[in-house]
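Worked Example 4.2. Consider the chain below.
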Amino acid sequence: MAVEGESEQSFVRWLQTLSDEKGAAHIHLDAFLLGGGGFKTMLENAMREHKRRCKAKGAYEDRFLLVDEDRADQGDWPIAELKREAGKHKFTLCVQRPNHEGLLLRMMPGMEREIPDAASARAKLKGRWAGYEKPARAQTLWRQFSLDDILRVAALDSDVGTLLRRIGLM
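Applying the procedure from the previous section yields the following structure tokens:
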């Protein structure tokens, strides 16, 4: 799974823990950092890293690209273009709305329908989770959230729902 930064990498580790706890089909979520940039750059880096890892470890069954929606403001590609190009290269796109902190906010009980603007997402999250620090580690996410929390978001967010279905959590 190609991810934007350390927060998303920890999020993927948390998803791995949920999968292990659930005892779903054996799955290994391998997250590698893209280090940010625009959508085009991130997809190119994801494709290059995927190719390199396949040579070393063998083919992966699924490929995911996890990015923040607010990256579209950086101007190289709109989300529709990223989705189209990612699909051509067999990557499933999962867009965090409006960003990672916004997704975590939406995982709070009763907040799944709340999609804050990107500029206020972190402040709103900190208002509900006083101890939040970026990047939140997987263990911190495990203490804060449950599978039910991400499932509530997945019921309303098709990208999150697709990701959870593909990894066996739904």
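The chain has eight helices and four strands. The chain has a mean pLDDT of 90. Compare this with Example 4.1 before moving on.
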